[in-house]
């Protein structure tokens, strides 16, 4: 009898620990990668970032917990960061050379392969909701500038005066960048990269935001939203609104990127993670590491958040830090900033 009880207990223990091991991640987010060093961070600032990331995870998780769609979880999580002045998306977006805020966003659903994106928009309060409207209510994948804004307005999205997006901190960043040589500038966000670009459009960190969610049906959605890079001009658009570069999702995995967009476009970075998994049978983590290595070899920097259908999350990046977080099925939140 004792033996049987012992056996039952050990079976129970094994299944309980197997269950706790299976506390899979259901939502991952990022608030940008870059030269985020602890020595430059005040306790107050770090607290503010942690609170904003926690709120984003909590809002997205509420959707998943209720049995809602991964698409909605991604939108809710991203909206929190777009509304926060701390991130380079929505309010708090970086400035173009001309002193404007031009924003990009994209969204993709893995189970249907539907995608929507907007680029260069200046009046849509939450650009991620515009990406969703393109995905849901149009026959297109990407809309840009005035046309995208007209469509958003017709769809009843909230439009704001462009001054809504302005923050002092981002304005000062632009002034600092403009004071330097405009034609030949060294990138100041990462001392190891001494590359020259035709015009200086960089900031010391990338504050783009993104989210990938896995809902109870096993559907994956990924989204990204950004103001781009400080001092960008000539209608420059980065990777964030480009499906396959900044955002990608299929039935196996979802990815959102942040970093020096030109490199993520050339590497077709987000899609490459999915392709390495499909064709080379790499795990989602191995695939992400491989792609970030490639970005580094090309001379670029940044990071990605990756979540696969098994609830495996990874956060590869080659910068000093990346604002990132995850929440599991049971509601366990993890937030990290530095390497
Ligand atoms: N990837 C974005 C871009 O190049 C910038 C960022 O991640 O903050 O527009």
From TrEMBL:
Signal peptide: none annotated. InterPro entries: Ntn_hydrolases_N, Peptidase_T2. Pfam families: Asparaginase_2 (PF01112). It comes from the Bacteria. PANTHER family: L-ASPARAGINASE (PTHR10188), N(4)-(BETA-N-ACETYLGLUCOSAMINYL)-L-ASPARAGINASE (PTHR10188:SF6). This is Isoaspartyl peptidase/L-asparaginase. It comes from Empedobacter falsenii.
């Amino acid at each position: 009898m004792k033996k049987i009880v012992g056996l039952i207990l050990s079976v129970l223990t094994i299944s309980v620990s197997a269950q706790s091991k299976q506390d899979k991640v259901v939502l991952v987010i990022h608030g940008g990668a870059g030269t985020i060093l602890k020595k430059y961070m005040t306790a107050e600032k770090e607290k503010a970032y942690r609170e904003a990331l926690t709120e984003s995870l909590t809002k997205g998780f509420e959707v998943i917990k209720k049995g809602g769609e991964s698409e909605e979880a991604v939108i809710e999580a991203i909206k929190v960061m777009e509304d926060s002045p701390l991130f380079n998306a929505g309010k708090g977006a970086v400035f173009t050379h001309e002193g404007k805020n031009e924003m990009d966003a994209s969204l993709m659903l893995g189970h249907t392969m539907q995608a929507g994106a907007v680029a260069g928009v200046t009046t849509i309060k939450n650009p991620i909701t515009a990406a969703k409207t393109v995905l849901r209510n149009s026959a297109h994948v990407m809309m840009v500038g005035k046309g995208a804004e007209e469509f958003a307005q017709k769809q009843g999205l909230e439009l704001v005066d462009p001054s809504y997006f302005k923050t002092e901190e981002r304005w000062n960043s632009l002034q600092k960048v403009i004071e330097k040589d405009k034609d030949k500038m060294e990138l100041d966000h990462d001392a190891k990269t001494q590359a020259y670009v035709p015009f200086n459009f960089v900031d010391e960190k990338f504050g783009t935001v993104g989210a990938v969610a896995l809902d109870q049906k096993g559907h994956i959605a990924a989204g990204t939203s950004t103001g781009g890079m400080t001092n960008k001009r000539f209608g420059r658009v980065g990777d964030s609104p480009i499906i396959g570069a900044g955002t990608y999702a299929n039935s196996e995995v979802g990815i959102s990127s942040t970093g020096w967009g030109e490199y993520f476009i050339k590497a077709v970075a987000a899609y490459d993670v999915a392709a390495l998994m499909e064709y080379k049978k790499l795990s989602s983590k191995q695939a992400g590491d491989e792609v970030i290595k490639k970005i580094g070899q090309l001379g670029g920097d940044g990071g990605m958040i990756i979540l696969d259908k098994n609830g495996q999350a990874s956060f590869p990046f080659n910068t000093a830090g990346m604002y990132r977080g995850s929440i599991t099925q049971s509601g366990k939140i993890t937030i990290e900033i530095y390497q």
